[in-house]
Amino acid sequence: MALGGLPVGPTVTGVLSLDDVCLDGRTVLLRVDVNSPLNPETMEFMDDRRFTEFLSTLEALSSSKVVIISHQSRPGYLDFTSTEPHSVLLSSLIGRPVGFVSDVCGEDAISAIKGMDDGDVLFLDNVRKHEEEISMKRASPEEMANSEIVRNLSAVIDAYVTDAFATAHRSSPSLTGFAGEVPCIAGRLMKKEINALRTAVFDPPRPYVVILGGIKCDDSLRVALNLIEKGTVDRIAMVGVVGNLMLWADGTDIGATNRDFVRESLGDSFEETWEMAEELISNHHNLLFLPTDLAVESVGKRVPMSVSDLPTEFPIYDIGIETMMNLRPLIMGAGCLLWNGPPSYFEKSEFAYGTIEIMNMFVEAPGVTIVGGGHTSALFNQRGKAGEVHHNSTGGGAVLCMLSGDRMPVFEALESSKEKFTPLLSALGLSPRES
């Protein structure tokens, strides 16, 4: 399938991008998100997509001294590791040396940065090894600017570039703390993500069909309500656990097993989420597409079941053939498609049907196709289909937050930095490039 460029709505205008500045010969701190799945037995990388996606930014900075900072997991988890293997993998991908220093912002890191030449790439250690990165996530901008991470690193860099879209909905010294200290710039990946997802929110080609699935019911319903409020969406298909919740809210008894699973997965958010579900059913039912048949697991096997035959004592793990047949014309007739969250427990082969079929339809669909990160994006990567959609996001939670209209602290930091530093670029020797 040949894909053209993604039609975009409001583009990145509120932030500085690499097209706005010249960073040749400058020392640049590049914040990426290469937090990657590791094989629990070998600790080898299972997926390198978060590396390959920021290589265009690294190429744009080929005449700079590039200091890379990222995180891998968090303290207490098995995959909380040094980022030295990340530097080795990156070196193999770009075909040139990538240095590593087992320090975040101390004397070893500062000394290594000062010793860099133009074109050098240096990887700092896992930023979450520094206590501030986790403890200061709710700190004010002023407090973050005074953190050791920001204070020490800003003294030896000329600019900060971020491609860490997958964590754009979070705040920490390495993500948002540099906004008032040095010019903060969106990398190529960050710019692509912002433009694509702004299209999905503000200016999608019509008709616009959104498929929301997976287990994050509260986030998915916020996305639905935000898109409805914007007046940009034409149909919203609810599948997976989200679909089960909406069937329940629509008056279908899905059975105690499935009701309990929805409640447990939502925890303290259940009541708020139930209110959103009732609002969607009461006020926007005409926009909703709900499953008409399902598949449950009984004695380890897939058993088809019509929604009219519910309730069931067995867990609902997939949508059925009739639902897929009804969904197909919506997908194939859409001007724009957004998909976030699988409709099935696709890790079990007997229940991968719904997820694989929607993926295949997305590849065939003539409209603009946007895959919203997380498990959905990983599936496209694993099946070698990532290049067959218009945009396959590196984010998961960040996508849901952006689509639901929640705060995006990294975007806010980029915007405030542009406002402060744009008048100073010439004085800092970072004059905008001539067009």
Q: How would you summarize what this structure contains?
A:
The chain has 435 residues and is α/β, with parallel strands linked by helices. The chain is 39% helix and 15% strand.
Give an overview in words:
The chain folds into two domains: 16-193 and 407-424, Phosphoglycerate kinase, N-terminal domain (Rossmann fold), CATH 3.40.50; 206-366, Phosphoglycerate kinase, N-terminal domain (Rossmann fold, 3-Layer(aba) Sandwich), CATH 3.40.50.1260. It has 18 helices and 16 strands. It has helices spanning 49-52, 55-60, 84-94, 107-114, 131-135, 141-145, 148-154, 173-176, 188-202, 217-230, 240-249, 256-266, 270-284, 321-332, 353-364, 374-382, 397-403, 409-421, and strands at 16-17, 27-31, 65-69, 99-101, 121-124, 159-162, 184-186, 208-212, 235-238, 288-289, 293-298, 301-306, 316-319, 336-340, 368-371, 391-392. The strands form three sheets. The protein has a seven-stranded parallel sheet with strand order 1-7-6-2-3-5-4, sandwiched between helices. Strands 10-9-8-14-15-16 form a six-stranded parallel sheet, with helices on both faces. Strands 12-11-13 form a three-stranded antiparallel sheet.
Write the layout of secondary structure elements.
Blueprint: E1 16-17, E2 27-31, H1 49-52, H2 55-60, E3 65-69, H3 84-94, E4 99-101, H4 107-114, E5 121-124, H5 131-135, H6 141-145, H7 148-154, E6 159-162, H8 173-176, E7 184-186, H9 188-202, E8 208-212, H10 217-230, E9 235-238, H11 240-249, H12 256-266, H13 270-284, E10 288-289, E11 293-298, E12 301-306, E13 316-319, H14 321-332, E14 336-340, H15 353-364, E15 368-371, H16 374-382, E16 391-392, H17 397-403, H18 409-421
Parallel strand pairs: 1-7, 2-3, 2-6, 3-5, 4-5, 6-7, 8-9, 8-14, 9-10, 14-15, 15-16
Antiparallel strand pairs: 11-12, 11-13
Helix pairs in contact: 10-13, 10-17, 14-15
